[in-house]
Q: What sequence folds into this?
């Protein structure tokens, strides 16, 4: 149980928090999340955070602000699905595990094709694919360690 | 409940949570997306807006030399500054929303900018230095890369305080976005100002994000990319 909790913390919650912090600190105000922050009563806190972190923005590369949060989302979703479907041989397992990649990369390709609104960004696509691969690598490694631990006990 | 069904339900719930979080990062009103280039751009044009289209024939001197073709929409209730684009003005155009007693609430100006992407931080510093001479208690509060619609740029924001206006002391908040040139065109500097006389704009972070400026900003587009 402890292993599962730490897995969720490090591979699901932490990436989402990192991506969310990038949005909260350096992205435009015209996002619904800022209304949510206001509703939750943390709007002033987020504003102070933005003012404090504003000087850092100049040192951050463009891709960090605009592509990393999406990649973090893909990583967390892929890791979450890998956890849920761990040990399963179901035919639906690969479909669920690839949901993050399908949605992340699919939305970029949809923009490239002009089907979805927004502008295609190769960095977004590249980082989404890398994030899904990394999530699968790290989660399969966790599975291996877990299996070893299980075998040892 | 079978383990298979349980996993499917858990996956579906998890996916719902992830999609919900993603929705939080979608621009709510598409304020900074340049929709004017989409098919919706023309049909969504409201009757209460004017379109300004920049053309080199309008200018002489420095402005003519550094002209770039662009256009944007602004509310009909805004006024165009007759001095912009003439004489030594660094701006092609300036539009403004004021109170009845001519206090600026928000304004939007487009000036020339000939620098390329790599030079923007340095040029932003120079521009900020120039602005500091024109605004009382000037203070640059942030700078960094930004995006206006599909145009990547570099911006800085500043605050200023004017102690003596017909309405008493007023805070002035500014945002300057430098859009670099492309092979087929020169760049542009978008200068936005708002004051504490505005009911909607409450801080420097709100400039171009709240009030009527976001609609003006989102309609900005170059004629060539």
A:
């Amino acid at each position: 149980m402890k292993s599962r909790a730490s897995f969720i913390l490090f591979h699901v919650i932490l990436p989402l928090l990192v991506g969310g912090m990038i949005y909260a600190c350096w992205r435009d105000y015209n996002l619904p999340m800022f209304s949510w922050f206001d509703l939750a009563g943390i709007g002033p806190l987020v504003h102070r955070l933005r003012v404090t972190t504003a000087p850092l923005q100049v040192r951050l590369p463009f891709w960090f602000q605009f592509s990393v949060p999406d990649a973090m989302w893909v990583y967390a979703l892929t890791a979450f699905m890998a956890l849920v479907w761990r040990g399963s041989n179901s035919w639906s397992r690969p479909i669920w595990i690839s949901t993050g990649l399908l949605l992340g990369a699919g939305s970029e390709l949809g923009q490239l094709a002009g089907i979805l609104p927004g502008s295609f960004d190769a960095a977004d696509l590249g980082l989404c694919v890398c994030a899904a691969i990394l999530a699968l690598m790290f989660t399969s490694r966790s599975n291996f360690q877990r299996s070893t631990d299980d075998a040892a006990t | 409940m079978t383990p298979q069904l349980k996993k499917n339900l858990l996956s579906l719930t998890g996916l719902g949570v992830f999609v919900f979080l993603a929705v939080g990062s979608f621009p709510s009103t598409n304020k900074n997306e340049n929709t004017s280039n989409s098919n919706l751009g023309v049909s969504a044009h409201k009757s209460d807006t004017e379109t300004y289209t920049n053309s080199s024939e309008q200018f002489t001197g420095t402005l003519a030399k550094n002209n770039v073709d662009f256009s944007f929409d602004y509310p009909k209730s805004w006024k165009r500054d007759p001095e912009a684009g003439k004489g030594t003005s660094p701006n092609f155009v300036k539009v403004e929303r004021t109170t009845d007693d001519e206090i600026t609430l928000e304004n939007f100006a487009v000036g020339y900018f000939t620098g390329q992407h790599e030079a923007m931080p340095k040029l932003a510093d120079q521009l900020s230095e120039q602005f500091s001479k024109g605004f009382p208690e000037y203070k640059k509060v942030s700078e960094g890369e930004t995006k206006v619609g599909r145009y990547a740029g570099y911006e800085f924001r500043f605050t200023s305080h004017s102690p003596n206006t017909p309405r008493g002391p007023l805070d002035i908040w500014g945002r300057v976005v430098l859009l670099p040139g492309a092979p087929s065109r020169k760049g542009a500097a978008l200068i936005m100002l708002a004051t504490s006389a505005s009911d909607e704009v409450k801080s420097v972070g709100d400039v171009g994000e709240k009030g009527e400026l976001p609609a003006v900003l989102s309609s900005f587009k170059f004629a060539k990319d």
Q: What stands out?
A: Chain B has two domains: 1-30, 33-222. The helical segments of chain B are 3-23, 39-43, 61-65, 120-134, 213-219.
